[in-house]
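4.2 Preliminary Data

To establish feasibility before requesting continued support, the project team ran the inverse folding procedure on a target of 162 residues. The structure was first converted into the token representation described in Section 3, and no sequence information of any kind was made available to the design step. The complete token record follows.
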């Protein structure tokens, strides 16, 4: 009985770490296409600053930051010429590096992106959003190598017209 209780507790803790739960209250900023999960307001402010180059010091700045994230989603869809119905993706902000020295990673099972706040850029976010768009559009996603070609195309074309 004690072994089962220990194993259950251990697995619960591991699962919470995998999904990015920090034990603190989860704040969420919802945009048209995303739900951005963060722990502290400063995390969200820093993320927005890394994404659009502007500090989010007031609620109007937060709204503008949310719009810039939605513009990235729309730009990715335009580049790929893929527009999944009812596209939604969760974004979990995390301080510090992710595992294996990754800046961001998309998980299709949870339809979520985990991204390092400190290393986030619009390009990194667009790359992971491209994975989300691809997975949510195709019933059977293309092989990973084909996906990487498509996401690298997004990397190259992201702001070409601007």
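Position-by-position output of the design step:
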């Amino acid at each position: 009985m004690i072994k089962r209780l220990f194993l259950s507790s251990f697995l619960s803790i591991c699962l919470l770490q995998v999904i990015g739960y920090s034990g603190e209250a989860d704040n969420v900023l919802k945009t048209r296409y995303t739900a951005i999960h963060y722990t502290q307001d400063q995390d969200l402010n820093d993320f927005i600053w890394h994404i659009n180059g502007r500090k989010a010091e007031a609620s109007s700045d937060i709204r503008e930051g949310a719009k810039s994230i939605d513009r990235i989603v729309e730009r990715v869809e335009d580049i790929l010429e893929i527009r999944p119905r009812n596209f939604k993706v969760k974004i979990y902000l995390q301080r510090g590096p992710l595992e294996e020295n990754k800046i961001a990673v998309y998980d299709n099972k949870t339809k979520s992106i985990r991204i390092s706040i400190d290393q986030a850029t619009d390009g990194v976010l667009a790359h992971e959003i491209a994975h989300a768009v691809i997975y949510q559009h195709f019933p059977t996603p293309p092989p990973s190598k084909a996906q990487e070609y498509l996401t690298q195309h997004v990397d190259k074309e992201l702001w070409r017209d601007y």
